[in-house]
Structure formats: C-alpha cells, structure tokens
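hiii so um. not sure if this is the right channel but i have a protein structure encoded as tokens and i wanna go backwards to a sequence. like what aa goes where. can anyone help
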C-alpha cells in the first residue's frame, strides 16, 4: 500500500516551523514503517488551515488529479493539520474518495464524524456555521 504524507505547520518563526514539521514528518514515517506502508510523496505547507488555498496543497492536488498513479492513502497527523474548514474538508474528502484515496489522521482514532463534532464548535464560533447543514452534507457524502 502506498501513501502520501501531508505536513502542515503555520509558524512565523523558521526554527519553530522546522521543529513542528519535523515532528509531524517523524510521526508519519514511523506510522508508515510500523504498518508497512510505502511513502510515495511528502507534501509540506506553511499556511492556515482555514481553506485549501495553500501552495503545497494546490500543487499536490493538481498533480494527483492529472496523474494515472495515485496513493491509496493520504496521511496526516490530525484532522486540524489537514483542514479546519468543515465544508471544504467534506468536499475535499469526497473528491479524494472518488479518486479512491482514503484520507486519514494517524494521531487520533476518531472517525470523520467525530472530527466534525470536534471542529464544528470552533468553526461555528468563527462563522456561525449551521452544524445540521454540515451533518447533512456529511451524510450525503457517505452515500457516494
């Protein structure tokens, strides 16, 4: 099984940035070694998780859309390393599922629905998100 690793840390201090990225990278590599997963590619971003308009993600996403070879997994350390924007998270996950790519955090054993519960409070405070609406989006996405 092959996986791509997504590593995102938002830091203004270059030394801290390196430490946070290295910690995530080490955890992901160890997870892959333990589970006998081959690492195909590593993607790094130093941007906010508020949306998917990030240089590393955009370049990666464009490349997998046009590539005939895709990973089975996209791994990251936790849901908030991948995204903190629930609607965009649901949409991106759905698109990747259609490409037969499973997105998965390694630090938590939470299901995607548990991540929605956890992050819905944070998102609701920032933008008055209607949690029921996103639950319905999630349920529709599960039917794909």
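sure thing!! here u go:
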């Amino acid at each position: 099984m092959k996986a791509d690793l997504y590593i995102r840390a938002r830091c203004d201090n270059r030394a801290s940035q390196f430490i946070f990225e290295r910690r995530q990278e080490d955890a992901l590599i160890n997870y892959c070694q333990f589970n006998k997963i081959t690492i195909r590619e590593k993607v790094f971003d130093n941007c906010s998780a508020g949306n998917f308009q990030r240089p590393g993600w955009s370049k990666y996403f464009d490349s997998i859309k046009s590539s005939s070879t895709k990973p089975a997994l996209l791994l990251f350390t936790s849901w908030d390393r991948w995204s903190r924007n629930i609607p965009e998270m649901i949409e991106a996950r759905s698109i990747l599922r259609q490409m037969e790519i499973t997105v998965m955090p390694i630090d938590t054993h939470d299901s995607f629905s548990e991540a929605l519960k956890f992050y819905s409070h944070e998102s609701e405070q920032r933008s008055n998100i209607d949690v029921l609406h996103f639950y319905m989006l999630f349920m529709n996405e599960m039917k794909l």
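oh and The radius of gyration is 15 Å.
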